[in-house]
Amino acid sequence: MGAPVGETQQAVRPQLQGVAPAPGVTEERVWPPADVQLNDLGQGVSWSKSVTQPGEWVGILEWHVCKDPDGELSPGGVYFQNAPEWMRGPRWTVECEDPLTISPSVLCRTCGLHGFIREGRWMPA
What we know:
Elements: E1 39-42, E2 45-51, E3 57-65, E4 73-80, E5 91-97, E6 100-103, E7 106-107, E8 114-118, E9 121-124
Parallel strand pairs: 4-5
Antiparallel strand pairs: 1-2, 2-3, 3-4, 5-6, 7-8, 8-9
């Protein structure tokens, strides 16, 4: 792992509505951060790479709108078998890097979104 995932379609970032900057901050907050490359899986779900300092690809952040009245994307960690021990939680197996296919399924414990990432697409469970 750690190899680039090839060409992927970048997801459209939702417009933030009525997000006020923190006191003393003059710019509106951008979420997800501008340097995060979102890869569209369809069905309102995207992913971005999660890497360790040496640049090894150890997982993804799965992004979707999760119980947010403003429609803001929320990330959830999906860690691969090679993730360091300090990254706690279950591990997923990468079956194919490009297009991304992992197993088992992904479940958001907050809103119940549940599906599979197969051939670079989100497949609802």
